[in-house]
Amino acid sequence: MSACPHDPAARLALLRAQWGGRGDLWVFGYASLIWRPEFEAAEHRPALVRGWHRALRMRSQINRGTPQQPGLVFALMGGGACRGFVYRMRPETAEAELERLWDREMVGGGIYDPRFLPCQTPQGTVAALAFTLSRRSEHYTGRLCDEDVVAILRHARGRYGTTLQYLAETAGALRERGVHDREIERLMRVAAGAGLPVHTDDQPAAARRVGRRSESRSSSVSSSASTPGSSTSTPTAG
Length: 238
What we know:
The chain is an alpha/beta fold. It has a single domain (8-217), classed as Gamma-glutamyl cyclotransferase-like (Hypothetical upf0131 protein ytfp, Roll), CATH 3.10.490. It is 33% helix and 28% strand. It has helices spanning 8-19, 32-35, 94-105, 146-155, 163-176, 182-193, 205-219; strands spanning 26-29, 41-60, 71-89, 113-121, 124-132, 157-158, 161-162, 222-223. The strands form 2 sheets. It has a 6-stranded mixed sheet. A two-stranded antiparallel sheet has the order 6-7. Strand 6 (157-158) and strand 7 (161-162) form a beta hairpin. Helix 5 packs across helix 6. The longest helix is centred in the C-terminal third of the chain and has 15 residues, at 205-219.
């Protein structure tokens, strides 16, 4: 989706054309969309995406940091494989939910490259909307040493809380659902070794309630049992 890269309306129109508006609309969640979806889903399933992996390598200057002290958030990067969850939007609200999701993920035209990816689920493969990041993006951090990551985890805070809280929430959500991500667990150990509070209890109570409330809406619909898995990265992504 390289056309009109700075025109969010044009990019949304292009995505709508690819979807067609007639079949089911699926969304792939690999980080905060798992524990803070903020949309009503008719169904959710565990899913595996090949050719992409989850990486804490996107700068956040609003949600989890500031321009003066950028934070980090996860992005879906090319290479490897990623286990997450797919969510099927209710047909009667899919259009409205897509707009809400677009406003959340594609602020100001967006940093992500949204695309439909084949997601393998226990019931078969579905094409789901995923928010990916190009290595050519100015918001891609490249490889960061552990010392730099720890400094960000220690200091970066944005409108939705700290990068540390974001990492801990994602780690906890995946762990609770039987998904093992070796790099995330390694980062949690690095953070703990640096004396940082790595439990999700360090997140403000109000933010935790929002996340739990949002997930409870999605979890009230039919779902499939999660199976243990892992997110793997290419050597260049650590």
